[in-house]
Amino acid sequence: MSFVQFDPQAAGHILLASWNGAPRPEGLTPTVPDTTAAYAVQEAVLQGLGDPGGVWKLALLGGTTRETAVLPRRALHISGTSLTLPSDTAIEVETALVLAGDPADSTPIDAIAEVRLAFELIAPRFAPGAAVSPLDKMADGFSSAAIVLGDVLADWRAGLPDQLGIVLSLEGVPVLAPETAAPLDEALDFLDWLSRHARAQGRPLRRGDVVITGARIGPLPLNGAQHVQACVMGATVTLG
């Protein structure tokens, strides 16, 4: 019996082509064997893009195990931007942490400069409907395509409610969608874990890095919507 050795650079090249507009593949062959390989593919994509990274996403591998993705800096956008997106794109409303530095040099809460309202756009580099393994999805940055940063949440250091009461609208029409509780303590615990992980990966967290820690609303299909807005506590984030 012969085995095909997994090559992170080759897998990264496939995803890189998709990042740059090539037809989206049905998956990776061979598939990603483990988390070490998945992180190696993420790095290969950043190298191929010539991108410094510095955008981090929390995710649960297979819905259970805490992992992360380092995303291209080019995936970061300011509120009001218009993006050309695949037809199967979904959107999540999140809160994003903008870092003042590495928590290893202070504490997780002191390492946060700002908490901003944000969108995450979900659009994998794989073909719509492709049966992709959880590790392949991890290698693909857990399907993240873009982060849109909105306004700063004022007085966040005084504490944020677990549920913020976010109001989301697509094309000006309010969307009734449940909001998931996201306690700040959970975000700080993740940030502490991420600091250790990032150093082990040779990517210590830095001032200006952006960290998203999970959807408060969504993912919801965009269904071609060109203008999306979320508002809460005087902060707004807008797509389009």
Automatic annotation (TrEMBL):
- Which cellular components does GO assign to this protein? cytoplasm
Secretion signal span: none
Q: Return the protein name.
A: Fumarylacetoacetase-like C-terminal domain-containing protein
Under InterPro entries, the record lists:
Fumarylacetoacetase_C_sf, Hydratase-Decarb/MhpD_sf
- GO MF annotation list: 2-oxopent-4-enoate hydratase activity
Q: Which PANTHER family match?
A: 2-KETO-4-PENTENOATE HYDRATASE (PTHR30143:SF0), ACID HYDRATASE (PTHR30143)
Spell out the Gene3D superfamilies in the cross-references: Fumarylacetoacetase-like, C-terminal domain
Annotated organism of origin: Puniceibacterium antarcticum
Which SUPFAM superfamilies does the UniProt record give?
FAH
